[in-house]
Please model this.
Amino acid sequence: MRTIIEPFKIKVVEPIRMTTREEREKILLAAHYNPFLIHAKDVLIDLLTDSGTAAMSSKQWAGVMDGDESYAGSKSFYRFERVVKELTGFHSIIPTHQGRAAEKILFHIAIRTNGSAQQIIPNNTHFDTTRANIEYVGAKAIDLPIEEGKKPSLRRPFKGNMDLEKLENLIREEGASKIPLIMVTITNNSNGGQPVSMENLKGARDIAHRHKIPFFLDAARFAENAYFIKLREAGYENKSVEAIAQEIFRLADGCTMSAKKDGLANMGGFLGLNDRHWAQKARALLILTEGFPTYGGLSGRDLEALAQGFKEVLEEDYLRYRIRSIEYFGEKILALGVPIVEPPGGHAIYMDAKAFLPHIPPLEYPGQALVNELYLVAGIRAVEIGSVMFGKVDPKTGQEKSAEMELVRLAFPRRVYTQSHVDYLVEAMEEVVKHKKKLRGFRMVAQEPSLRHFTAHFEPL
Ligand code: F0G
Model:
């Protein structure tokens, strides 16, 4: 059979409230043309993020009932720990309420702040919270994506890779003592959700270890990355995704994990470590900020849902449906002439608003124009990843510098939407394409000094 069906039946449904265009015009005005400020009940298809938005399985819900809420030594923690250890092989598994809490603890213990020269953490591309947590303790976050990764329309199998030559040069120029750890993000979310090859992961690990630098993963979308390796990398076609994921984790000395993505649950994360000294320090901090080491900011029921989720996410029928539904949407809108980051990534389609709306200059936010139009036309919520998110105002001159790319991300919650939802998205884009020349840019009329995209207000030009 050619059709890849959703490998699940629907047992519980959550109604979507239909809205009219007139209603949406009012809603958008009240939200100051910033979809982050729209109430979720007013959204028909919510593609703001794939984080914490998954539908859980009947087995996960059964686990929720079975959650052990004991403060210390909960059986749900031991189940979670066993599953995560089998997957990752790390010596210490430290639960956190989400990914950024694990990042905060890791950088706090790994980065030296007193006296020595400014420390540096390289990554293929840091996610925003990772970068922010590094900068918060006074260190520098450096992105080293491969050049091919920066060209949206170029089709390459592993555009998420790290530039290993640049990594070597950085270590040579700065000295290994300034680099407390090297990180690789799988998949590379800030760079189109593109995967990293096993070869590249091994290369980065080899360089790190040659210089006696610990090698870490930001593993939020490890299962999607492992599936791409199976599909695209020679030598892995006959391995199970589970075995590939296990191989990936065993290259590293530790990881941060936002389990809100490939944990198939709504909340959770962990810090995985092999170094016992670091683990001891991390647990001491965990008690201060998250909770006792056998729950770390999570309920016992969350730990149960995660233990089950980490197993289900590696089922290949699930991954086939997951990756194919996003690829299907990507192919359909490419055929309509909508430029996207190619090939489609693991969890999202990134539309290239700069190429799609060349009549709107970057500082009039073409991505914001597209996001708002998608909401008006069809009640779809997407997110701008361009100058609204990454543009910087120079505090001295007041001049604004645009971002390198003007993208719009449509991130797909896991197991939530079906084929007809995706076909509806395609139809919405068909509408947008028809009158794209009429779209106008926006002016930002209120903003916060950092992470301004969450709360900024806009006016149409
Ligand atoms: N690392 C990556 C690669 C991420 O994509 C995220 C979150 C985090 C770390 C932080 O994890 O949210 O659990 O604290 N990404 C979400 C997104 C928010 O929409 O891409 P968190």
